[in-house]
Amino acid sequence: MTSMAILTIFALSIFVGFEVVSKVSTTLHTPLMSGANAIHGIILVGAITVADSATSTLETTLAILAVVLATINMVGGFVVTDRMLEMFKGKPKTKKVATEGAEK
Amino acid sequence: MTSMAILTIFALSIFVGFEVVSKVSTTLHTPLMSGANAIHGIILVGAITVADSATSTLETTLAILAVVLATINMVGGFVVTDRMLEMFKGKPKTKKVATEGAEK
Amino acid sequence: MNKNIYELLGLLVAICFILALKGLSAPKSARRGNLIGAAGATIATVLVFFAPFAKPGDKHHNTALIIGAIAFGVLVGVPAARKIQMTQMPQLVALFNGVGGGAAALVATVEYLNLSAGGEKPSAAAVVATVFTVIVGCTSFSGSVITFLKLQELMTTRPVVFPGGRFLIAATLAGVLGTGGWTIAARGNTPLLVMGGLSLLFGVLFVLPVGGADVPIVISLLNAFTGLTVAASGYVLESTLLIVAGTLVGASGTILTRLMADAMGRSLFGTLFGAFTAKPQEVGAATEARSVKSGSPDDVAILLNYAQRVVIVPGFGLAVAQAQHTVRELADLLAAKGVDVAYGIHPVAGRMPGHMNVLLAEANVPYEQLVEMDEVNPTFPQTDVVLVVGANDVVNPAAKTTPGCPIYGMPILDVSQSGNVIFLKRSMRPGFAGIENELLYDPKTTLLFGDAKDSLTKVVSSLKAL
Amino acid sequence: MNKNIYELLGLLVAICFILALKGLSAPKSARRGNLIGAAGATIATVLVFFAPFAKPGDKHHNTALIIGAIAFGVLVGVPAARKIQMTQMPQLVALFNGVGGGAAALVATVEYLNLSAGGEKPSAAAVVATVFTVIVGCTSFSGSVITFLKLQELMTTRPVVFPGGRFLIAATLAGVLGTGGWTIAARGNTPLLVMGGLSLLFGVLFVLPVGGADVPIVISLLNAFTGLTVAASGYVLESTLLIVAGTLVGASGTILTRLMADAMGRSLFGTLFGAFTAKPQEVGAATEARSVKSGSPDDVAILLNYAQRVVIVPGFGLAVAQAQHTVRELADLLAAKGVDVAYGIHPVAGRMPGHMNVLLAEANVPYEQLVEMDEVNPTFPQTDVVLVVGANDVVNPAAKTTPGCPIYGMPILDVSQSGNVIFLKRSMRPGFAGIENELLYDPKTTLLFGDAKDSLTKVVSSLKAL
Ligand SMILES: NC(=O)c1ccc[n+]([C@@H]2O[C@H](COP(=O)([O-])OP(=O)(O)OC[C@H]3O[C@@H](n4cnc5c(N)ncnc54)[C@H](OP(=O)(O)O)[C@@H]3O)[C@@H](O)[C@H]2O)c1
Ligand SMILES: NC(=O)c1ccc[n+]([C@@H]2O[C@H](COP(=O)([O-])OP(=O)(O)OC[C@H]3O[C@@H](n4cnc5c(N)ncnc54)[C@H](OP(=O)(O)O)[C@@H]3O)[C@@H](O)[C@H]2O)c1
């Protein structure tokens, strides 16, 4: 891939990244941060790639460490985000109990 | 440029295009359409490119016609969009005259 | 010019276009956005003269001709854009879009001829892209011309449907696709030209059955299509800028088309495939027999004079009569008399979205007096008089009450909630959608027949005399 | 696997990530968005085992080890994410982010070692990208560890500032950049390792002077940085997927950082360069001498019992005391007695945005009772009792009245407008920002000292006895 292509892809991705989150509500700041954090766990793919071609012990050790860290980042990130969002989930709405013990 | 790069650029541009206009208010529909219309006048660049390398009379004629049409699209498009938007411009606001002839 | 610098500048132009679209989607930045786009386009145009050659030893051809052609294009385009009346802008945009599509089709054709002449075999993907560009570009060109004719009322705005029309369209489409396949397989010039011709025909047939009300949606759709042809040309010419710019327009145009269709309460699908499903319709027999209450300018002036709150509902007729200045004069006069005046703006009043805003802005109507539909609707019960100036469909209760009528489901300005409704129009003819308006027969409605500007002028002088 | 298919699937994964971020920005689609992201990541991980080889004849190494490492990572990451308490989520996210940055730095290092070992000279651009990745990845790693320690309160949450600190940071930064230049020029392994070490130190020094309140902003910033390192690794490894995904996170993270800083009324610039400008501060002398009115659970119960409308303002103390279920019990009890109850939610109450929403959702508090700041503020004058449960800064009038104090300018819940204010807290200690709250001394304020959960339990039983 030419460097121009890479640069173009980079520039377009910046715009997509900006636009896609620019209207998020405060409530979702933390889940969004956490989700984005999980997404950069995709470095796992890079870690596997380098581990897959590593031959010396030093390289292998470092690469395998990278795989472990990246996995934690990715898997943990998605799980914790899901847990946060699960709590937001609008349960089958309980009606506002504003009048005298109607639900008692 | 590889076809993967082109495909990636294409996909990202779609997202940018979608996201960037998705929250436009009704009032701006027409100027936005008109502005987007002017932007595709950039085919002028393509027209100039083919005209620049055209040698036969047929090719030259068609290419020059393309240059004319593309120029009309591009220049006319931006000018007419600007004219529309000029009308929206919030002039130095006249206060709402709701009480008895205060401004007379 | 160094290739890297050239391409970097191309990327910069692409970014300008993104910023332009972004700017255009918010009122505050819209004008700046348009200027950024224009700046980008200018840079790109100047730049292309310094483009590095694909093959060493290439040289420039036709430079003088090209510059002449650009100058000619400017001389045609700028005055057209400058002089056009507000009411005619939509058709001008349609025309500009059409020529853009035509240009894209021509560019792809020339490149195709060029490659075949040079004895090179273009790649399969490039041929497919060429075929796509020519088909869609030609369709967009001829389709836009028809929308222009419709909007300019050089032909009827009603859906044009004739017996066997559906069949003819389907056959043409099949022909287009067939010749497309032929071109891809045989790669000759003849199939390409036949295909172009059939595509032009298809564009005409595609737009003919579209009713005038749906025309802006079709323009927007053709606009998106033209964007895609530009992207395809970019693929053939190996220009990242064209790919990005074209795709941007294609994507944003598609979204915009949907948003517009939503705002008008139309189904996009119905609009698009109307051509295939439309059946000849009988024009409904006029029911002129019922009685209406018509008034004189004096009657109207009196009604207005003693009102606490007046809402003016402008529509397409205001634009036709060019009565925006007169209506403002009336509003100022009423305000000076202590009447609370507002304009109720329906999003699709007139013939393009935002039409009324543009028109009233031209007459310097203060922004605060322009009240959008959602905000003005709840105030009608407290409104004494609604003055409907050349609007019809946007206040037609049929949108609520008559399932199946063309505007059913479109939100309307609920003027019947107010104390009195005054209609300024020239006749009992229906509005754009061609349907009867029950409100004209309502006992609280007064009709003041005549050109809106004349009528308003008379009302103003009666009011001054009071 | 065929290279084209492999790359197409990579593009698909990139699109999943875009859709994930898009989904995560709207409440309705957030969870689905996260799942789409997880699906994309899973596809990518499985896929990479079938990646076509760069050079023909290459073979797989360490497959068993890699799978083992992934399994180990899952075994560490999932339980950590599952078992963590709500209150500790921010620090877990920080930690996850840190390990991600560490992984990126390691990947770049290994690839660098690999190329030098193979005798290949990596391109200048690749070396620059490697240097960038290692510097930012290491900074992100050590910085995140410090934020973790701060949030976990394993170290002080106050800004850590020491004499000469500014100087030390500047020197470290100079060292990092210097060794970076050295690495690019000399391309040895030693400069790279020294650079990595200095970057780790820089990360620590960078985060130490950040006050606890700004920590989430810093986490978000480091998150964006890690995204960029992933993009840079993608450049080195020639993976479009990593480039797109990393850039997406970098861009959205930057925007998010700014949005968060805005929501907390903090200046991003101040937060970032705090390290360079922070001066040692004296801790303000406590002014314990003034009198406050403290009450018993019975007093509070009576106040609540005879109120028409009660607003509960939860804060970080509610999370600490894990009192969300008890507070709900109280609210239900009051509602059953006919009192109009709502929760007033400040956007930055607690230690992460949305903290209170999450916490109260855990206790099944009905959505309708959660009222956002802008909506609840106008209702305080009609509110009889405000029950402040472990909140402090978010109701501190100093944000309005004391220019120069750390929270000046932050919008607050204006509880002083209501009839009575009850504070549930353990002591007279200030809140997160470390500043005195005048409202505690206000005559209409009643303090109920003690752990929030204990106090609430007592109030509930008194209320039942009434
Ligand atoms: N805004 C958009 O984007 C857009 C685009 C395309 C279509 N449309 C459609 O256009 C329609 C807009 O509704 P509308 O209420 O504004 O207009 P309308 O329904 O077309 O009604 C216009 C009315 O103005 C009257 N009129 C025309 N010229 C006049 C003159 N010189 N003086 C006085 N009255 C005059 C006409 O009656 P007489 O002939 O009896 O005078 C007609 O009743 C809707 O159906 C909408 O869907 C809108
Ligand atoms: N939400 C975010 O994103 C975020 C992130 C970082 C920082 N911040 C900052 O955090 C602050 C949030 O304000 P806030 O009002 O929620 O919290 P706060 O100002 O930190 O006040 C918390 C209060 O809870 C009390 N408390 C602690 N544990 C308790 C317990 N077990 N039982 C009863 N009371 C207890 C504390 O007083 P005692 O010690 O006397 O009990 C303290 O006054 C703001 O300054 C905000 O800028 C927010």
Low-confidence stretches of chain C: 279-288
Instruction: Estimate percent helicity of chain A.
Output: over 70%
Overall mean confidence score, pLDDT of chain A:
83
Large-scale geometry of chain C? elongated
> What's the total number of strands of chain C?
6
Q: Helices and strands of chain A, in N-to-C order?
A: HHHH
Helix content of chain C: 55-70%
As a percent range, the share of strand residues of chain C is 5-15%
Number of strands of chain A: 0
How far the N terminus sits from the C terminus of chain A, by CA atoms, comes to: 68 Å
Q: Helix- and strand-based class of chain A? A: mainly alpha
Taking the sheet with the most strands of chain A, its summary is:
none
Number of helices of chain C: 17
Bound molecules: NADP nicotinamide-adenine-dinucleotide phosphate
Task: Write down the Rg of chain C.
Answer: 26 Å
Strand order of the largest sheet of chain C: 3-2-1-4-5-6
The main β sheet of chain C shows up as: 6 strands, parallel
Number of domains of chain A: 1
Task: Characterise the protein shown here.
The complex is a heterotetramer, with two copies of chain A (104 residues) and two copies of chain C (466 residues). Chain A is mainly α and 104 residues long. Chain A has one domain. In chain A, 70% of the residues lie in helices and 0% in strands. Chain A has helices at residues 3-21, 29-39, 43-53, 57-88. Chain A is flat. The N and C termini of chain A lie far apart (68 Å). In chain C, strand 2, helix 14 and strand 3 form a beta-alpha-beta unit. Chain C is elongated. In chain C, helix 1 runs antiparallel to helix 2 (30-48). In chain C, 59% of the residues lie in helices and 7% in strands. Chain C is of the alpha/beta class and 466 residues long. Chain C has helices at 3-24, 30-48, 63-83, 89-117, 124-151, 165-186, 189-207, 215-237, 240-263, 268-277, 297-305, 316-321, 324-336, 355-362, 373-376, 398-401, 452-465; strands spanning 309-314, 340-345, 370-372, 385-389, 420-425, 445-449. Chain C has 17 helices and six strands. The structure holds NADP nicotinamide-adenine-dinucleotide phosphate (2 copies). The site of one NADP nicotinamide-adenine-dinucleotide phosphate (NAP) has 32 residues of chain D, from helix 8, helix 12 and strand 5.
